Amino acid sequence: MPHQAHLTGTVPFKFIIEYTTDSRVPLVINKLRSPLSVFSEDLKSLDSLIDCQDINTGKKVPWSGVFGCWDSDPHPEFLDHDDFVEISADKPWRSECTLENQENEVEYVRSMEGLEAGHMYKAKVTERALVAFNRWQYGKKADLLTRTKEEKMRRWEVGMDKLGSLKVESAGEVVFEAVA
């Protein structure tokens, strides 16, 4: 049975992107400057994150939802610890995007407008959002972030050429039905 997107009512609809690794050593990524950040690659709308198509018509869903960014300091001296995520073979990272149903929309932010009740859809992460993570390191989050601000800034400098980029691969698409 496919997943369901309720266009009305109180049941939320979420796109969940789960990042996993087969590395024996944990790794920590800077998620704020990641492919999923509103600061990166102009990822400002649902359309640039999720590619969704009506299965019967082949027509692409024209998402109108946008991501708002009201960060008073989008380039702080050093990021909060919450802006870093530890991923290991037994501890994936889940990024969730909850869509508002058509009754609860607020200025089309993360809206389900574009979906029609009774239609089946397939969705996947866009190629644009699958670009590599450039700021990451091997180790545990607690170890990598328990230094002075100056040491952390030096450790997480932009020139991360020593490690290269983490490639992101899609596990495929999800099928769901839009219901009233």
Write a structural description.
The protein has one domain (3-179). It has 2 helices and 9 strands. The protein has helices at residues 141-144, 149-155, and strands at residues 3-6, 13-19, 27-30, 50-54, 84-87, 93-99, 120-125, 136-138, 174-179. It has a 4-stranded mixed beta sheet with strand order 1-9-7-4, with no helix packed on it. It has a 3-stranded antiparallel beta sheet with strand order 5-3-8, with no helix packed on it. It has a two-stranded antiparallel ribbon with strand order 2-6. The radius of gyration is 18 Å and the shape is elongated. The mean pLDDT is 78.
Present the secondary structure layout:
Blueprint: E1 3-6, E2 13-19, E3 27-30, E4 50-54, E5 84-87, E6 93-99, E7 120-125, E8 136-138, H1 141-144, H2 149-155, E9 174-179
Parallel strand pairs: 1-9
Antiparallel strand pairs: 2-6, 3-5, 3-8, 4-7, 7-9
How would you sum up this structure in a few lines?
The protein has helices at 141-144, 149-155; strands spanning 3-6, 13-19, 27-30, 50-54, 84-87, 93-99, 120-125, 136-138, 174-179.
List keywords for this structure.
about 180 residues, mainly beta, 4-stranded mixed β-sheet, 3-stranded antiparallel β-sheet
